Amino acid sequence: MVNYVRADAARTQAAAMIQELEAARPGAVERLAQGALAELKTWPELTVLEVDENLVEQGCSVAGAYDFGPPPHLSVATSVSRARRDFTALHELGHHLQKNSFALMEPFGRESDGGLLLEDAACDAFAAEILLPTPLVNQHLDAKGPTASAITQLWQASNASRMAVCVRAAQHLPASGHILLLDPLGHLAFAASYGLPPLRRGSFQGDVAVIDRALSGSGHARGLTQVRYRDGILGRELHTDTAPMDGYLVAVLVTDSAPWRAFTPPTPDTGPQARDYICANCSEEYHSFDPACQRCHIPPCPECGRCSCPPRVPERLCPGCFTLHPPSMFSADSDRCLDCD
Q1: What DSSP string describes 254-307?
Q2: Checking phi first, is residue 144 left (phi over 0); if not, alpha (psi -120 to 50) or beta?
Q3: CB 7 within 8 A of CB 129
Q4: Cβ neighbourhood burial of 324 (10 Å; 0-12, 13-18, 19+)
Q5: How many other C-beta atoms can be found within 10 angstroms of the C-beta atom of residue 340?
Q6: Residue 70 and residue 47: Cα distance in Å, rounded?
Q7: Is residue 245 helix, strand or coil?
Q8: Which residues contact 27 (CB under 8 A, 6 or more apart)?
Q9: Most exposed among 29, 205, 211, 221, judged by the fewest C-beta atoms under 10 Å?
Q10: How many domains does the chain have?
Q11: Do the domain assignments include residue 164?
Q12: 125: number of Cβ within 10 Å
């Protein structure tokens, strides 16, 4: 299973979300663009809470959370930036819209992960579409793709947050890659990915090539780098361009067709590849990056949750239900389990 969501699928879902929102609340998109958090606080069916960022879970790509209740409520991390709060509020509104519409949930059934990645990516696209109109985006982002400096200029020309600008820039990437927003210490504040596995918010990227030079220098740097995934695993080499963004660092990373170079052939895919396994217990075929069991050296099966170690309690197969049970589930004079007898 490839762990990423195509940008066009997220944009298609975001367009459907906007259409459904406008049908239910005419003029809502324009009012949300003027001030999303203030507008949402007037909606009687929603409770909007501003909470400390440390209280927000890491599951979302932004510093916010959605609880469908009842009653449903949105949590938005307090921030000195109104633009950031508005982007987060719109992202969480995206979760609310998708979790309360059968039509919007329908595409999730076609996703191998049940739509988890698509839902979150669509929330980002939904927020970015509202905050950054297409004419303004096209004015600053070249058809060949975004550079880090162009992303900064788009942010300066808009009232949108850095995160919204990163999402819009990722929609214009010429090849698979990432748009990263890093704090001064090199921790990932936000990432918008296209065609590559997404990066975890809060992960440390400050010591990887190019990023380290940019953070210790003027903020402008170019070259090849590898971003860090879970457990320190490095991804494939990517062409990288960085620029300062008022206390943050924005970075554009692509596999090929870098807009700041005349010719950039694809980098070799030296990143981690998931191994193939067949579960010894349920015969499920699966791919996994999960840590392997220290005894049998096989990661757990996502279907049954077991590795290849023999069960600690002997098991018998019931011919009635074809299920493995411990001996206590069988009577002394029967080969069928107690449930089947």
Answers
A1: ESS--TTSS--PPPP--S--PEEEE-TTT--EEEE-SPPPTTT--PPPTTT---
A2: alpha
A3: no
A4: middle
A5: 16
A6: 10
A7: strand
A8: none
A9: 29
A10: 3
A11: yes
A12: 29
How long a stretch of residues is the chain?
A: 341
Specify burial of residue 92 (Cβ count, 10 A radius: 0-12, 13-18, 19+).
Answer: buried
Helix extents (H) in the chain: 7-24, 28-34, 36-40, 82-99, 102-105, 116-131, 134-140, 148-157, 162-170, 211-216
51 assigned to some structural domain: yes
Nearest CA-CA partner of 90 in 35, 137, 51: 35
Q: What is the domain range of residue 224?
A: 133-255
28 and 124 part of one domain: yes
Q: 224: alpha, beta or left, given left = phi > 0 and alpha = psi -120 to 50?
A: beta
Residue 193 φ/ψ region, left for φ over 0, alpha for ψ in the -120 to 50 degree band, beta for the rest: beta
**Both structure tokens of 205:** 């990227």
Q: How far apart are CA 164 and CA 124, in angstroms?
A: 7
Is 290 inside a domain boundary? no
Cβ 158 vs Cβ 150: under 8 Å = no
pLDDT (tens, 9 = 90+) of the chain, 341 residues, equals 334 556 778 889 999 999 999 999 999 999 998 888 889 999 998 888 887 766 555 555 566 788 877 788 888 887 657 888 888 899 999 999 998 888 999 888 887 777 888 898 899 889 988 988 888 999 999 999 999 999 999 999 988 889 889 989 998 999 999 999 999 999 999 999 888 888 888 899 999 999 999 999 999 999 999 998 877 788 899 999 999 999 999 999 999 999 999 888 888 876 665 667 888 877 888 777 676 777 777 888 877 777 887 765 567 788 888 877 777 778 878 888 888 87
The amino acid occupying position 6 is R
Residue 60 falls inside a structural domain = yes
- Rounded to an integer, what distance in angstroms lies between the CA atom of residue 264 and that of residue 20? 41
Distance CA 159, CA 331 (A): 72
- Structure tokens belonging to residue 101: 């519409």
